[in-house]
Amino acid sequence: MQRYKVTLFEPYPFEVGQKIRIEGGKRGGDWEVIGVSEAKVKLRCPISGREFDWDRFCYVTQERKDEIWPKK
Prior knowledge:
single chain, mainly beta, four-stranded antiparallel sheet
């Protein structure tokens, strides 16, 4: 049986109040998590104040300490 390099993705366990930064893609930027349900995550842009409900998604992630948030 052959073996392969496999990247695993898991649903990210969003928590209300989290400050997050998405690098790249149509959702790229700084966001605050303002709501979480089984199917959706509600994010608010800290600069424009706009809010979006998106299907929950997952990413390969890392945590950084002492980051400036939001980036302008």
